[in-house]
């Protein structure tokens, strides 16, 4: 009995949603876009998404937006902010930002979010400052995000959105998901609060507290920090939510039991890594105390380590599934592991570095498709599949066909 109730409940709660986008059950695929965390390096996925949106517009006209083509958009930290910008509705019920606008937004606002006031301080002064509180007060970021997203709630996004954060009081990840927000008012937070929370990186920005309320006056408090401490690459988080929806008999996803990865299209975009530099070693790290782990020559080795570790483990997991089922072309991971110097920082917001990141994003499109080697764990170029731009162009066609297929089915019903 419980099951039919859940099913009815879910069915009812999703009906209103169909005016935005025909659900997967009307087509053949489940489509997911995932965006990693990485501060100012969010410009890199911004550039890649802009290319994808351009390709979709070539197929379906200038009004096409990324959110029209994905059943789930998921993002962590800066990726969560990107996710909100391309899925939150404006007054015409269209996405607030086109992908092109996002790059301009980053170029304009990053210098104010991460003001570069440290130039004249010696490293000893920097270390003292770092011990006295977060590097940035977050005031500009908070007011900018609230100004943009106003009172938009998670349940109102134009497609399903999944954004992880971490509750420092409960010491557990908190996953904000449209699926849950539509059923549970106490999980239906304002998108602005979610964005501020998922990007509250330890040592960089202050933690965020807010409360949600339901119609009976119950409240729930959240004490949140950056989602990157849980899942800097949120692809698996999104997959878990989708699997849960299937298990709960969500009508939108009903035809996919048991889960068939051949029916998925997943584009996962990283914010780059400085792996080629190999700037640390066991020799160096074995001498570090807590302060050097948190601050060493302009980087934060501890934070870099866990954010790259969790991102890579997720890629290995996803890749091993898709490679073992011989549908590896359905899962595209776009990542640049060759960042050097300032480009690998999360908060260097000089004009020069931001424009360099745009260039890095553009050259990433020209690089060959890469895939993780399951033996060595190395991210390697694949022969014979062309560039990332070629792969995106191919997937854009598939996404467009799927959208038309669903609309055709909807029109028949």
Question: Helices and strands in order, then pairings?
Answer:
Elements: H1 2-15, E1 30-35, H2 43-60, E2 72-75, H3 78-87, H4 99-113, H5 123-131, H6 139-149, E3 160-167, E4 172-177, H7 178-181, H8 191-198, E5 208-213, E6 219-225, H9 228-231, H10 235-247, E7 264-269, H11 282-285, H12 290-294, H13 301-324, E8 331-334, H14 351-366, E9 370-372, E10 379-381, H15 388-412
Parallel strand pairs: 1-2, 1-7, 2-3, 7-8
Antiparallel strand pairs: 3-4, 3-6, 5-6, 9-10
Description:
The chain is α/β, with parallel strands linked by helices. The protein has 15 helices and 10 strands. It has helices spanning 2-15, 43-60, 78-87, 99-113, 123-131, 139-149, 178-181, 191-198, 228-231, 235-247, 282-285, 290-294, 301-324, 351-366, 388-412; strands at 30-35, 72-75, 160-167, 172-177, 208-213, 219-225, 264-269, 331-334, 370-372, 379-381. Strands 1, 2, 3, 4, 5, 6, 7 and 8 form an 8-stranded mixed beta sheet that branches. Strands 9-10 form a two-stranded antiparallel ribbon. α3 (78-87) packs antiparallel against α8. The two termini are 28 Å apart. A motif (DGA/G) lies at residues 226-228. The active site is at residues 77, 226. A motif (GXSXG) lies at residues 75-79. InterPro entries: Acyl_Trfase/lysoPLipase, PNPLA_dom. One of its GO terms (molecular function) is monoacylglycerol lipase activity.
């Amino acid at each position: 009995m419980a099951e039919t109730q859940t099913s009815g409940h879910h069915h009812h709660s999703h009906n209103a949603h169909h005016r935005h986008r025909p659900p997967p059950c009307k087509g053949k695929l489940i489509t997911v876009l995932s965006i990693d965390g990485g501060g100012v390096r969010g410009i890199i996925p911004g550039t890649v998404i802009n290319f994808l949106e351009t390709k979709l517009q070539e197929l379906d006209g200038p009004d096409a937006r990324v959110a029209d083509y994905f059943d789930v958009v998921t993002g962590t930290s800066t990726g969560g902010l990107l996710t909100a910008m391309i899925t939150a509705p404006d007054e015409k019920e269209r996405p607030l930002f086109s992908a092109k606008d996002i790059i301009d937004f980053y170029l304009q606002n990053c210098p104010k979010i991460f003001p570069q006031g440290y130039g004249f301080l010696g490293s000893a002064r920097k270390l003292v400052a770092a011990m006295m509180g977060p590097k940035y007060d977050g005031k500009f970021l908070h007011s900018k995000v609230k100004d943009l997203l106003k009172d938009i709630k998670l349940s109102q996004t134009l497609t399903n959105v999944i954004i992880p954060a971490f509750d420092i009081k409960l010491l557990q990840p908190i996953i904000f998901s449209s699926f849950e927000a539509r059923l549970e008012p106490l999980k239906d937070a304002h998108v602005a609060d979610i964005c501020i929370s998922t990007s509250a990186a330890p040592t960089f920005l202050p933690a965020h507290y807010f409360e949600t309320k339901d119609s009976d006056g119950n409240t729930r408090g959240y004490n949140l920090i950056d989602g990157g401490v849980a899942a800097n690459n949120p692809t698996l988080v999104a997959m878990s939510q989708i699997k849960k929806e299937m298990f709960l008999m969500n009508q939108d996803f009903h035809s996919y039991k048991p889960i068939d990865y051949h029916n998925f299209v997943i584009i996962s975009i990283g914010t780059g890594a400085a792996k080629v530099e190999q700037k640390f070693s066991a020799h160096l790290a074995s001498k570090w105390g807590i302060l050097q782990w948190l601050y060493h020559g302009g980087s934060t080795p501890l934070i870099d380590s866990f954010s790259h570790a969790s991102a890579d483990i997720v890629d290995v997991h996803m890749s091993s599934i898709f490679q073992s089922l011989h549908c590896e072309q359905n899962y595209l991971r776009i990542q640049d592991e060759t960042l050097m110097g300032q480009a690998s920082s999360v908060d260097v917001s000089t004009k020069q570095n931001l424009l360099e990141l745009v260039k890095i994003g553009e050259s990433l499109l020209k690089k060959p498709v890469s895939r993780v080697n399951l033996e060595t764990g190395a991210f390697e170029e694949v022969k014979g599949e062309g560039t990332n731009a070629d792969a995106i162009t191919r997937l854009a066609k598939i996404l467009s066909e799927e959208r038309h297929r669903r609309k055709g089915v909807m029109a028949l019903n």
